[in-house]
Amino acid sequence: xxxxxxxxxxFGMSCITFYLFMHMMKPENRKQWENFYMGMxxxxxxxxxxxxxxxxxxxxxxxxxxxxxxxxxxxxxxxSLVIVLASHWTNISAAFKRFMYLxxxxxxxxxxxxTGDEQSATFFVKNGSMYYKLTSGFWNNLxxxxxxxxxxxxxxxxxxxxxxxxxxxxxxxGKKLLMCVNxxxxxxIFDTIMPQFGYLAFPGSTLGQFFGAVLLYxxxxxxxxxxxxxxxxxxxxxxxxxxxxxxxxxxxxxxIVNETGKSFFDLPxxxxxxxxxxxxxxxxxEFYSVDKKTEIETICRNNGAYCNVSTVPILDExxxxxGFLVLVNNLSEKMQMIHELEQERKRADAANEAKSxxxxxxxxxxxxxxxxxxxxxxxxxxECESSEIRRYAxxxxxxxxxxxxxxxxxxxxxxxxxxxxxIVEKEYNVLEMVRDIxxxxxxxxERKGLAFQIELEEGLPYELYGDEMxxxxxxxxxxxxxxKYTEKGSVCLYIKAGERMEDKxxxxxxxxxxxxxxxxxxxxxxxxAFNRVNEEKNHNIEGTGLGLSIVRQLAELMHGSTRVxxxxxxxxxxxxxxxxxxxxxxxxxxxxxxxxxxxGQLEKKVVKEHFTAEGARILVVDDTAINITVVKALLKRxxxxxxxxxxxxxxxxxxxxxxxxIIFLDHMMPEMDGIETLExxxxxxxxxxxxxxxxxxxxxxxxxxxxMFLEKGxxxxxxxxxxGQLLENIVExxxxxxxxxxx
Length: 743
Ligand code: ADP
Prior knowledge:
By secondary structure, the protein is of the alpha+beta class. The chain has 5 domains: 2-227, Rhodopsin 7-helix transmembrane proteins (Rhopdopsin 7-helix transmembrane proteins); 240-330, PAS domain (Beta-Lactamase, 2-Layer Sandwich); 341-416; 422-604, Heat Shock Protein 90 (2-Layer Sandwich); 611-742, Rossmann fold, CATH 3.40.50.2300. The chain has 23 helices and 24 strands. The strands form 6 sheets. Strands 9, 10, 12, 13, 14, 15 and 16 form a 7-stranded mixed beta sheet that branches. The protein is elongated. Residues 481-482, 485, 513, 515-518, 526, 532-534, 538, 543-549, 572 line the site of adenosine-5'-diphosphate (ADP).
């Protein structure tokens, strides 16, 4: 009876540990090293329990002895594996670990064989139950010592975990392991130590090892929790994610919500029926899709927050949906920020526009007096005999032009800034453009003692379509800089054909100099407006720091770019690429292409004669007296009759009375401006100047204004400051032929 009960109990234990062993051996579990070892410990425990259950179920002594000898293998495997597993969790020295492994395994194998033989135990049957006693002898004594040593090792490991463990987790595991060693140790007393003193063996260690193994199993599960696993991660994400997270099943029942979600939606205790349609204002919006992720932006009904709601189907191992995971991203703050930034940008744009307007206004105002200075200066140059005064006048002219240049740069810059710079495209001749640049800049370079060279690539198109004036401005700016920042050596202009795309091409402009060069660290800010670099060297070179910024922006307007290569102290190379249309397949050839072209032009040209037009009547209208004086003076040479008016009203009075051939009409005038005056003039029925050509004079040099004036009814347009030659040309163009006399 006694042995039957024990046999059943042990058998039950064996089944339990075998079941746990199977669980640990599942593919997803055994991947982890500790789980695999725990599985082996459970298997040894199961063999141990099973063999001892069989032992007590026998009535045959021989059969019982055989079961015990098999069971001993389970015993020793169990003890050695527990040592390996427990030492894995501690930081105890590697040498000691090795000693423990050697001791438990090397001594465990012969002990497993020899403690299971006939001499080690005496079996007998009493009242139908199987009993056994251990026979004292060398191997059994060694067996007892072995068991005690294993217990001591385990205590050392436990001590090391509890006392030296760096993490709380390790110390907690140490405590669990302590329980497991205590139980196994106590159990051992009954069948390992007591039988040594002649007591009958009670399978205490088999019972103890079972509880020990189960405790160890729970320790491993506890250990697994601290490992990075899908379960741990999901739990962590679930509780710590800062955004609301909801999980619905297929029938749209809300099953799981994290804490953030509960407070965000202010959910009641019973939240199962809170579908997404109830949580969000989402008419006609399809939140759930069983086969794909959906993303919807909508408003939360509870707090009015603007949210991005993304729903992902949760799939089972057959890839079928079992529910939905919903992540809610509250975008309200971001939207608010975007809104504020947008407001900020609008304010900045408005401020920038105001600045550009003021700049344009100021430069416009400055151009008017410069107009007077340059015009009157030209009169002095034309009329004055004294060479000394002419020299002064030349200097005034130079200073005036520099000032005009500066104002033009500011005006250009403000136009680009406010997006008002227009690219006006027309056909132009490349050689003529380069010739003009050479004429203006060659003498400037030579006056400074610099060699000036122009190289046009063989095969460059002869005629292009683009904004010649702006291309010229880019090249002039770059060459002017090269001359300004070079003391000796040379300045070279190279024009090459870059990439060709159908009827378009990249015109590559390179300006090289042997000047002061640019430091590496300065290159980045060269192209920023109002930025001048290397100021200690350049302080006496005049400039605004706007030139390169304008070059870059003009190039960008023409779908191109600008870059610089430079070595400080040795020289620089600025390259600008602009996109231009190719007008004809005719190309430029030969080193002297410009000279050849000029020769050809000279042959064609009828030398322009000076003319006079004594019978012509011209009316000049401007509210600024000095401007009238300038125009009058510039027209003196061609001997026309000039009348003047200082307001729109006076203009109409005079024009209706006298028949004028040409009327020069200023745009900006108080009371009636140029456009209003023209309209009134055209309406006047008794108008003696009905056939007069009306030309607007304006300091408004913004591109596009010419077209605007022509549309308003003006016959032509002249911008201030007025160029004497251009003025004569325009008069020649519009006067009746019979009034013009060539000398
Ligand atoms: P700035 O009116 O001062 O010449 P830019 O915008 O044309 O203004 O040029 C900006 C700065 O770049 C200049 O102040 C000068 O220091 C530097 N720089 C421009 N071109 C050259 C060059 N060819 N060699 C050396 N430095 C140059």
